[in-house]
Amino acid sequence: MHFKMGQTIYYTNTTEDIVATRQQDFQLSADYHWQTSPVATKMRYFFQFIIQLFARVYCRWALHIRYVNRQLLRDNPNGCYLYANHTQQTGDAFSPFCVTAHPAIIISPSNLGIPIVGRLLSAAGGLPIPSTPRCLKPFLQAVYHRLDAGETVVIYPESHLWPYATQIRPLAPASFHYPASHPAPVYTMTTTYQHSRWHRRPKITVYLDGPFQPDTSLSLKDRQKRLQQQVSSQLHKRSQNSTYQYVTYQRRSQP
């Protein structure tokens, strides 16, 4: 799906899918297995190394992304969580590889339904959310296994992709269950947009901030709520650095 400069997109609520795949309703099979074996890990690391080489070139020269505070995640090699706003169709798949060597990106099952690319996502470290409650336990075990191995668990708490959006949408409370239940440092990655004199599409500046430490003195529910507030506040703060609207989002008037 292509978006044009000055385009206005109308929406009814912030949970709408602006970009939908042909396999939007794709469901994981009941016997889906999140790979955590040593052999699978070595193969994933090799594949991620190849993707990282491509991502650095693609994000720098095709998407014109500049990263601020990129060293933050390098200073925390023991595993962490990274929360980001969801505004780039392809950039959000590759940008995590520019800030960490081994991202474990939590993705929607619909992404696995994309021909060819879908198969590559899990091989590259994607962790599809289970379609049924019975699969939740092995999914969480895989997430925490990757975190404990020193990887960066990447989460897009807005859930839905809104290309070039400069506003921060409500963050899904459930997405903060991970660091509340299995504490580790939490960081944010905010994508912002600025006008470019030389390119048709805007420049992109990505800010990394943190860490925010889960407060283990609080109850699980309060810890989760506190992290949501901290991440939301930081994303909103950095989003003020967007100075250009390539695409405008406008709520439909109620009848």
Give an overview in words.
This protein has 255 residues and is of the alpha/beta class. The chain has one domain: Glycerol-3-phosphate (1)-acyltransferase, CATH 3.40.1130. It has 7 helices and 9 strands. The strands form 2 sheets. The chain has a 7-stranded mixed β-sheet with strand order 2-8-7-3-6-4-5, with helices on both faces. The chain has a two-stranded parallel ribbon with strand order 1-9. The longest helix has 25 residues. The chain is globular. The chain starts with 6 loop residues before the first strand and ends with a strand. The model has no long low-confidence stretch (mean pLDDT 90). It comes from Secundilactobacillus hailunensis. This is Lysophospholipid acyltransferase family protein. GO terms for molecular function: acyltransferase activity. Keywords: Acyltransferase, Transferase. InterPro entries: Plipid/glycerol_acylTrfase (IPR002123).
